[in-house]
Amino acid sequence: MKVKFWGTGAAEGIPCGFCGCPVCQEARRMGGRYQRTRAQVMIDDQLLVDMGPDTYTNANRAGYDLSQLENVLITHSHCDHFYPNELHNRQIEFSYDMKYPTLKLYGSQDVYDQYFNFMGADNVSNIGNISKSRGKYLIDQKRVALNVLEEYKTYDIGEFKVTPLPATHGGQPFVYIIEKDGKGIFYLNDCGTLKEEVFEWLAKSNFKLDLVIYDCTHAMRNTLTDQEGKYWSHMGQPNNIVTRQRLTEMGLCSDKTISVETHFSHNGISVGYGDFAPLAEKAGFICAYDGMELDI
Ligand SMILES: [Zn+2]
Ligand SMILES: [Zn+2]
Ligand SMILES: [Zn+2]
User: Fold this and answer.
1) Which of 28, 59, 73, 128 has its CA 20 to 30 A from that of 103?
2) What's the pLDDT tens digit per position in 2-12?
3) At what angle do helices 273-282 and 22-30 cross, to 10 degrees?
4) Taking 70 as the threshold, does the pLDDT of residue 125 lie above it?
5) Is the Cβ–Cβ distance between 227 and 276 less than 8 Å?
6) How far apart are CA 30 and CA 10, in angstroms?
7) From the CA of 82, how far away is ligand 3's center (Å)?
8) What pTM was computed for the model?
9) Residues 6+ apart with CB under 8 A from 115
10) Among candidates 95, 5, 16, 14, which has minimal Cα distance to 58?
11) Any idea where the domains of the chain sit in the sequence?
């Protein structure tokens, strides 16, 4: 599988638009890998994971034609991962000649519910008398289809097999195991350390992981111990090391598994690209950056 990291930042991005902290000022000064849009990846040019507010810009930057896209996996309903207002532009007489006129979105019941909350009354259609329908017009027009997934079940989505697992985070979040062509990816962000029930379920599974994409919102912070676990809903590299160790002991990861860290926040410790990339490498991780591509 070909994995393209379109965005590698947390909710605020780096720099955060309104922030003057040293991390954000460094990112403005340095540009390039120091700047991070909101996290999302594209797999094999067929499956987009998360659709945050930078999707339009990231698609153009990657040279990707969104009119060719059919399937989008959503991890959770936080707006850096799911920004459905952009879908307004898919409606009839706004978008033409799409390869797949119906864009299929997949996520938890919470993602389904939040779609209708996010799509405010200003997102009305010009077509017919269906104003103030909070996004229903896109479903009626078959321009969007919402599919609710259940945890621990495996689904065929396009050419992929996708298994959602419950994550530790806000709302009803999922992390995903994504398989194709005999390869496995664990999309393990945006989230905190895995629940014990998930570790136990994984221990009984036969998944073989070629790539794990870890949450690294807090960079060098241990989110379970720092300030009495105040940061429990995200991970940092100390937590990723422990998680990788457990996945390896369970036989899901091996020394051939590629470990990537992403979803960085300016609130992290030593999070600037120049500081963190060497620390990641030293611990056997790849520090993701916007535009990074991996072939597994
Ligand atoms: Zn996030
Ligand atoms: Zn900042
Ligand atoms: Zn989140």
Assistant:
1) 128
2) 999 999 999 99
3) 100
4) no
5) no
6) 19
7) 10
8) 0.96
9) 82, 84, 105, 135, 146
10) 5
11) 7-35+189-296, 40-150
Q: What is the mean pLDDT of residues 13-25?
A: 98
Confidence at residue 130, expressed as pLDDT on a 0 to 100 scale: 46
> How many Cα atoms sit within 13 Å of 108 on the Cβ side?
22
Fold matches, 7-35+189-296 and 40-150: yes
pLDDT band (50, 70, 90) for residue 120: low
Side-chain half-sphere CA neighbours of 160 within 13 A: 26
Q: Which residues are bridge partners to 185 per DSSP?
A: 178, 211
| Ligand sitting nearest the alpha carbon of 217 | 1
Question: Candidates 3.60.15.10, 2.60.40.1190, 1.10.3860.10, 3.80.10.10; correct CATH number of 40-150?
Answer: 3.60.15.10
Contact 40, 82 (CB under 8 A): no
In the 8-state DSSP scheme, what is residue 219?
Answer: B
Please determine, for residue 123, whether its predicted confidence score (pLDDT) is greater than 60. no
- What's the 239 CA to ligand 3 centre distance in angstroms? 17
Give the CATH fold of the 7-35+189-296 domain.
Answer: Metallo-beta-lactamase; Chain A (3.60.15)
Q: Check whether 115 has a pLDDT greater than 60.
A: yes
User: Ligand 3 center to residue 93 CA distance, Å?
Assistant: 33
Give residue 217 CA to ligand 2 midpoint distance, Å.
13
Ligand nearest to the CA of 40: 1
281: pLDDT strictly greater than 90: yes
